[in-house]
Amino acid sequence: MGFATIPKSTTSARIKENSDIFNFEISKEDMIEIEKLNDGFRIGMNPNEVYERPEIILE
């Protein structure tokens, strides 16, 4: 499942600029640094488990 973004713009040039999201590359070095940010910490409940484990609502 992905996310849809709705850029706020009224000028054609800005709308085109906002939709041009695939014109960049992330280096291997940057990806390594980005991966370091994932410490496994999550906040919130998994919506798929709420009805299977009602006790987590009270935690």
TrEMBL record:
Give EC number(s), comma-separated: 1.1.1.-, 1.1.1.283
Q: List residues traversing the bilayer.
A: none
- Into which EC class is this enzyme placed? oxidoreductase
Q: Which domain of life is it from?
A: Bacteria
Q: Does the keyword Transmembrane helix apply?
A: no
Known Gene3D superfamilies for this protein? Answer: NADP-dependent oxidoreductase domain
Q: Does the keyword Methyltransferase apply?
A: no
Q: Which GO terms describe its molecular function?
A: methylglyoxal reductase (NADPH) activity
Alphabetized, the UniProt keywords read: Oxidoreductase
InterPro entries the UniProt entry points to: Aldo/ket_reductase_CS, NAD(P)_OxRdtase_dom_sf
Protein name, as recorded: Glyoxal reductase
Organism whose genome encodes this protein? Clostridium beijerinckii (Clostridium MP)
**Organism classification:** Bacteria, Bacillati, Bacillota, Clostridia, Eubacteriales
